[in-house]
Amino acid sequence: MKLVKSLVLGSAAAFVGVTGASAADLPLAEPVEYVKVCDAYGAGFFYIPGTETCLLIGGYARAEYSVGEVTKTLGGVRGANASGFRARARLWFDARTETEYGTVRTYIRAQFQRDSGGVSGGVGAVSSTSTTSDDSIFDKAFVQFAGLTAGLTDSFWDFKPYPTFTNPFVSDRTLALIGYTYDFGGGFSASAAIEDGTGRRATSISNGFAARDFDYQEQTYPDFVGNIRVQQGWGEAQLSGFAHQINAQAVNDSEWGYGAQIGAKVNLPFLAKGDYLWGSAAYAEGALSYIGLGTSGDAGFSSGATQNITSANTLVDFVVGADGDIKKTQAYAFNLGLLHYWSPKWRSALQGTYADVDVASSGQDSRFYAVTGNVIWTPVKKLDIGAELNYVKVDKKSASYNLRDDDAFIGRLRIQRDF
């Protein structure tokens, strides 16, 4: 028995010795850096390996079909297709790092889009072919640090929590800017920015006027934009203002356009989770883009144009009168919308919008109404399938206005998957 016990212990000792020697001879494995979740900024962020920077990658793919003949026939050629398609891909990167001065944020958003183009051939010509329009842009690229925002992003004027596919009469632009936001605490803040005013210019040629009567000269000063904002559990509200320089080529003089906007969004959880009511009212003088006319909004969607009244060639920021004075266009815009969740998978929106434009001394005044409603189904998380109907009416229009009739219906089908 002692002999067996000695053999067993001896064998175990020998095995341990051999194993230890073999392990010592093996090369050490390189340490592996696994991707770690970063929960400091919400869901989806992760640490970039080897750094203290958290990154969120997101985006969506969208397909749309639009139908509704809006623009009239000019010289035998219609200015836009009665129906058409749009495909859009959007991708964004949100990188944040904590420092002794607070969070440093870098945000980049790229967009790739294809639209069914307008009918080819000029006025007086007829063509059976059509074109497509490809668009690839860096939609946003900005840095935020200690209250500073610098780069390409939403204007500090903008307030646009609208729930419809179709843009109401609101500014919806990304512009190059440098701004600062002071946080008072409790959801209150104030912001001021200098913004690229060339991105706001609305100029075109109208009947009876020379082209120079609408053309800008060089930009001497940027647009000055500011807002006061509150965001709390009940919702959010914002008061905005702007000043926009007008340098007209026709005269060696300049004027300042200006405007103000107030908007509010009120959460309605007592109706259903996610419900809200929103509205805005704005006045702009000398810069129509600030109320979503001229160069902003969805006017570029030429096929079955969603609200293509914004593309009328009579919408200009100013007119140079016979006396050589710059006469600024004045405009009002009002919006009211409601979003309601019938269930977690079904929601609807109803929205009304109105704009009144007074083009000084040109006889090209216009007044527009639009009512929009939609139904959206979300069968699985982050997949939306929706249909929307938009009714547009022109109550007052000039002789050169390009809307086919006094009113029109435009339908849109959208399928979108976010990630």
In CATH terms, what is the fold-level topology? Porin
The major β-sheet equals:
16 strands, antiparallel, barrel
Q: Number of helical segments?
A: 1
Strand content: over 45%
Which structural class should the secondary elements be placed in? mainly beta
Poorly predicted regions are 1-5, 11-24, 119-131, 205-209, 295-313
Estimate percent helicity. Answer: under 10%
Oligomer: single chain
Question: How do the helices and strands line up, and which of them pair or pack?
Answer:
Blueprint: H1 2-25, E1 46-47, E2 53-67, E3 73-74, E4 77-78, E5 83-99, E6 102-119, E7 130-145, E8 148-154, E9 174-185, E10 188-195, E11 223-232, E12 235-248, E13 253-267, E14 276-285, E15 318-320, E16 326-328, E17 330-343, E18 346-358, E19 366-377, E20 383-396, E21 407-418
Antiparallel strand pairs: 1-2, 2-5, 2-21, 3-4, 5-6, 6-7, 7-8, 8-9, 9-10, 10-11, 11-12, 12-13, 13-14, 14-17, 15-16, 17-18, 18-19, 19-20, 20-21
Description of the molecule:
It is a single chain. The chain is mainly beta and 419 residues long. It has a single domain (58-418), classed as Porin (Beta Barrel), CATH 2.40.160.10. Helices cover 6% and strands 52% of the residues. The protein has one helix and 21 strands. It has one helix spanning 2-25, and strands spanning 46-47, 53-67, 73-74, 77-78, 83-99, 102-119, 130-145, 148-154, 174-185, 188-195, 223-232, 235-248, 253-267, 276-285, 318-320, 326-328, 330-343, 346-358, 366-377, 383-396, 407-418. It has a 16-stranded antiparallel barrel. A two-stranded antiparallel sheet has the order 3-4. A two-stranded antiparallel sheet has the order 15-16. β1 and β2 form a beta hairpin. It is globular.
